[in-house]
Structure formats: C-alpha cells, structure tokens
Amino acid sequence: MDLSKTIRLGGQALPEGILIKGPKYTVIAYRDKSNEIDFVSLEWNFKFFDYLRKIPLIRGLIAIFETFSLSIKSIFVMAEISDDEINLDSIYFKLFIGLMFVVVIFLTLGIIIFVPKLTAGLIAKYFLSSTIFKVWIELFIRFSIFFFYIFLYRFFAIGKKMFQYHAAEHMSIHAYENQELLTKDNLRKFNKEHPRCGTAFLAFVFIYANIVFHIIDFNLAFVFLFLVRLFISLFIISITYETLLLGWKSNKMVFGKIINFPGYILQKITTMNPCDDDLDLAIVATNKCVELHK
C-alpha cells in the first residue's frame, strides 16, 4: 500500500456499530439480528463544503457541522435498517437534520456555559461575593458536569460498548495509515488514542472557552450575553480547529505532541479495550470505505 495514495479517514462510534468516513463516502458496519456483520454506505454530497474546507477559520465550523449532522443521520440510518420507515432523501429529513444541529448547539451551550455561570453566581451571592471565587466555582462546575457525564456513561452497557467501538475505530485507522494489513493482531499493535480524534477537538474548545470566558466578562442582559458568548464560542471552535490542524500535521514533532497531549489524556477516558468482535467491525468498515474510494 502506497501511503501517498491513501485517503484521510475519520470515524465515529455508534450505539450499534462503527462508522468510518472518507472524503466522499461513509461506511457504517454493524451486526444484524443473526449477529453477522453487515454494512451500509453513504455518499457525502455537501459539495459546496469542499470549497469552504479550504478556508482557514471557516473549516473548523464546517468540521463540527459535518460531525453533528453525520451523527444524526447515522442514527436514522440504523433506524431505517431496523425497518423503520424513514426517507433519508426527503427535504423534511434534511430540514430535521439542520434543526437537530441547532438544538444540540444551544443545549450544549446552555448546559456547559450558562448553567455553571448562573449556579456560580448564586453560590457567590449567598456565601462569598468575591469575583475570583465566582470564577473558580464556575470553572469547577463546568468541568464537573463534563467529566461526570463521561464517567457516568462508562458504567452503562451502551456507553461501555461505544467506548470499545471508539478504540477499535482508532486502531483500525492507525493500522491503515501505517500500511498494515487490517487484521485483529495488527490492530492490537496500535494505541487506542488517535491524534485526529474529535475528543481532542472538544477538549481544546473547553480549555479555550474557559480561558476566554474568565478573562473577558460582559455585564450584559442574559439574552445579549448569550448572543455574545455564542459568537465567541464559534470563534473559539475555529481557532481550536486551526490549532489542532497544526498538531495533526506535526504529530511526530515535539510541538505536535504538546498540542495533542490534552486530547490523548481525554481519550484515556473515552476509549476502552475492544474485544475481537469490535475489531472485526472496524476492519469491515475501514476496508469497505477504502474500496469505495478506489
């Protein structure tokens, strides 16, 4: 396999399978009711995004939009496989994808940004009216919510399986990028963590958001504060993506390792050692995705 001719792959862990995404095609590998491996392929038709992906700052927003929309579409694909009557090509479905993206963004901003701020304000009001105290309480609450959710998810069967799928997906992409034949033994040579993991993206957004929101505080009405922080959040997403892009391109250098380090640490939590069945799914998804791009 000539590495110069390989394609850039990404992936996601799904509740019932593993998704591998290439530049044009996406493959979801899953187990059917008889426990046999099957797969479904999707063609990625956002051609206008091909141009936007080349524009610095804009491409980060495109990346997060694609991630959310692909996640939502994958859920409906799995539902369709289960014989639910869903037309993936209808205009209503595409509008629903857009609506769900907006809802997810607003819920995330609400839970991660504004709940900690309001809670910290109440605590500071009744216990200690120090600005520094309020800042640290808000920071503590924000990270507590985030990590509590992740740790709690590990204790559920569906969460454990998704974290195993997450690791298998990374190991399969590692093997492909290192020109290894995709076998279970070869996959197990590689780490569960991957420098291009979206978890690293999330980790850096968190770090930058906390730095910016605690340095720049606005004494505005709640609605205006929400809009200001929304705009800043989008800018943070863009800067984060550009930073990680540098890390991905210089992964074998000290500079790249420093940039990627927080993402690796977080992936220690969001991945678990996969079993052979998980690796089999990742291998099928990766092989089929590569074949479609030939």
Automatic annotation (TrEMBL):
Pfam families, sorted: DUF1385
Keyword Transmembrane attributed: yes
Record key words, sorted: Membrane, Transmembrane, Transmembrane helix
UniProt cross-references to InterPro entries, sorted A to Z: DUF1385 (IPR010787)
Protein name as catalogued: DUF1385 domain-containing protein
Ranges that cross the membrane: 57-79, 91-115, 135-156, 197-216, 222-248
